[in-house]
């Protein structure tokens, strides 16, 4: 069940990350699915990126373009509006989720028929529309939105939630998908064929047959956008299955919902991003389908094009000199595929449409750690080991560990310094600032270690401290501190 919070960002209703992760870790099948899928994508990405001698230079160029655009975002958005309008499109500005949902709903209704007529729209995978809860809002107004991306279709048929940016159904294996198709496809359109197997070819064919009549009958399509070029008004969608091409060309009306951070200065900048994105996301040298359009053209594609530019917390994020890095994300999911935390918990544990490391830095900024969902959102910056693998993998060089630590400090400040971590650090500061207290603490630790240690390790700490030892091997404190040893062996004159 989705629900908007006071910042207009849809929260998926999960508990805080520690609780959600604890439940996810109990699911052995989930961990096996994630481990197999992420390992495959990681290996492919490393292989194809190594083919380019200028891979690091491309990353530098992409980071520079994104940083430049963020500094001049107002200018490029105005230029984009002018270019789209000149090409025959219409631009709408949406400050939050409610406004974006209202705009899209009114545009769908304006395509003809009575206001209460049940309608159908086809969709190209879009995280922005998931963020604002567009499907749910359309359903409340008698409009059914059909996801056409294979993984999104799987999620929709299962009344499930996406768990990955690139592969939303990464948490399911082929057998689970076959069973879902057999049980649910008939309720939403053309049923799966009898005797459906779990072979990828058979599953893809079942999905193609199911969706074909939706493509041919829908009058309206809703899409996201990977990039929009300010100088030409060109909007791009990259995908792997061809469903996007069908949605973007067959319906009479095309509505694109795009976060304002997706704009780039010029069409020429695509030369950089279209090398980085496919290699970082799917491990391919190029996307099988790259669709680009500028406004409308008579007799070719949709006769009406609407671009909805979504803020929804992005300008607030832009105001933070450190946190704004997250807006450079091109949604490749490379950070998810290398993250040891994501690999073990999956995307649902993050409680947001943006999972993994990028979600841990983007969601708290869009939602705000002082919002109604602060208990869940505020836990996300701590959902990391700070190993830095995400920073190494990011094609636009977002320093995710830096943003994580920055947001952790904000969470502590928002909670008035009353978190367990803050209190522990405050106490440690007092001890470390006093030689007398430090000596006493070391002696107490050594004594406690003698009582609790087994085979040189602490078995289980008492009270609330057991959470540390339950999940870690903790060496017993030394029986003699370094300071004590130094006094005996150095200050006493021994060599």
Give an overview of the whole structure.
Residues 462-495 are annotated as: Disordered. Residues 414-489 form the Lactate utilization protein B C-terminal domain. With 495 residues, the protein is of the alpha/beta class. It folds into two domains: 3-314, 3-Layer(aba) Sandwich (Rossmann fold), CATH 3.40.50.10420; 434-491, no CATH class. Helices cover 49% and strands 12% of the residues. The chain contains 23 helices and 15 strands. α3 crosses α12 and α16 (356-367) runs parallel beside α19 (400-414). The chain is globular.
How would you summarize the topology of this molecule?
Elements: E1 3-4, E2 10-11, H1 17-24, H2 28-49, H3 55-71, H4 73-86, E3 90-94, H5 97-109, E4 119-123, H6 127-132, H7 134-140, E5 143-147, H8 150-157, H9 174-188, H10 200-217, E6 220-223, E7 227-229, E8 234-239, H11 243-249, E9 253-259, E10 263-264, H12 270-281, E11 289-294, E12 304-310, H13 314-318, H14 334-338, H15 340-345, H16 356-367, H17 374-377, H18 389-393, H19 400-414, H20 420-432, H21 435-452, E13 453-454, E14 457-458, H22 466-470, E15 474-475, H23 482-491
Parallel strand pairs: 3-12, 4-5, 4-6, 6-9, 7-10, 9-12
Antiparallel strand pairs: 1-2, 7-8, 8-11, 13-14, 14-15
Descriptive labels:
single chain, 495 residues, alpha/beta, Rossmann fold, 2 domains, 6-stranded parallel sheet, 4-stranded mixed sheet, 23 helices, 15 strands, metal-binding, iron
Describe the sheet with the most strands. Answer: 6 strands, parallel
Shape: globular
Q: How many structural domains are formed by the residues?
A: 2
Any guess at the CATH architecture of the largest domain? Answer: 3-Layer(aba) Sandwich
Give, in spatial order, the strands making up the sheet with the most strands: 3-12-9-6-4-5
CATH class of the largest domain: Alpha Beta
Fraction of residues in helix = 40-55%
Instruction: Kindly report the average pLDDT value.
Output: 89
């Amino acid at each position: 069940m989705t629900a908007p919070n006071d910042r207009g960002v849809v929260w998926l209703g999960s508990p805080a990350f520690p609780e959600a992760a604890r439940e996810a870790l109990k699911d052995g099948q989930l961990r096996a699915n994630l481990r197999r899928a992420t390992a495959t994508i990681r290996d492919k990405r490393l292989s194809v990126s190594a083919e380019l001698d200028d891979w690091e230079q491309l990353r530098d160029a992409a980071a520079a373009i994104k940083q430049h655009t963020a500094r001049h975002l107002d200018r490029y958005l105005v230029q984009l509006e002018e270019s789209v309008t000149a090409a025959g499109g219409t631009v709408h500005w949406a400050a939050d989720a409610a406004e974006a949902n209202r705009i899209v709903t009114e545009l769908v209704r304006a395509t003809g028929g009575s206001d209460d007529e049940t309608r159908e729209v086809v969709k190209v995978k879009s995280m922005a529309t998931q963020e604002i809860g567009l499907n749910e809002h359309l359903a409340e107004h008698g409009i059914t939105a059909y996801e056409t991306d294979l993984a999104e279709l799987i999620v929709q048929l299962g009344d499930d939630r996406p768990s990955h940016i690139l592969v939303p159904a990464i948490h399911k294996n082929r057998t689970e998908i076959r069973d879902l198709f057999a049980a649910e496809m008939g309720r939403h359109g053309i049923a799966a064929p009898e005797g459906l197997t779990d072979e990828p070819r058979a599953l893809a064919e079942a999905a193609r047959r199911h969706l074909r009549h939706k493509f041919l009958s829908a009058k309206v399509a809703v899409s996201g956008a990977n990039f929009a070029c300010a100088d030409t008004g060109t909007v791009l969608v990259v995908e792997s299955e061809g469903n996007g091409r069908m949605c973007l060309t067959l319906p009479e009306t095309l509505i694109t919902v795009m976060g304002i951070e997706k704009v780039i200065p010029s069409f020429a900048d695509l030369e950089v991003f279209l090398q980085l994105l496919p290699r970082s996301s799917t491990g391919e040298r190029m996307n099988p389908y790259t669709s680009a359009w500028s406004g409308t053209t008579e007799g070719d594609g949709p006769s009406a094009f609407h671009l909805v530019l979504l803020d929804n917390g992005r300008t607030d994020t832009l105001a933070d000199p450190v946190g704004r890095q997250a807006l450079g994300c091109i949604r490749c999911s490379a950070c998810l595929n290398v993250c040891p935390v994501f690999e073990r918990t999956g995307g649902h544990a993050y409680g947001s449409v943006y999972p993994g490391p990028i979600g841990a830095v983007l969601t708290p900024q869009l939602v705000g750690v002082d919002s109604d969902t602060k208990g869940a959102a505020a836990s996300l910056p701590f959902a990391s080991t700070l190993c830095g693998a995400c920073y190494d993998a990011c094609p636009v060089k977002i320093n995710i560990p830096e943003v994580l630590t920055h947001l952790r400090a904000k969470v502590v400040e928002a909670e008035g310094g009353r978190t367990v971590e803050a209190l522990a650090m405050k106490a440690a500061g007092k001890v470390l600032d006093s030689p007398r207290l430090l000596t006493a603490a070391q002696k107490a630790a050594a004594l406690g270690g003698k009582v609790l240690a087994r085979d040189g390790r602490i078995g289980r700490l008492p009270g609330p401290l057991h959470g540390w030892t339950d999940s870690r091997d903790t060496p017993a404190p030394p029986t003699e501190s370094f300071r004590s040893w130094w006094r005996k062996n150095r200050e006493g004159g021994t060599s």
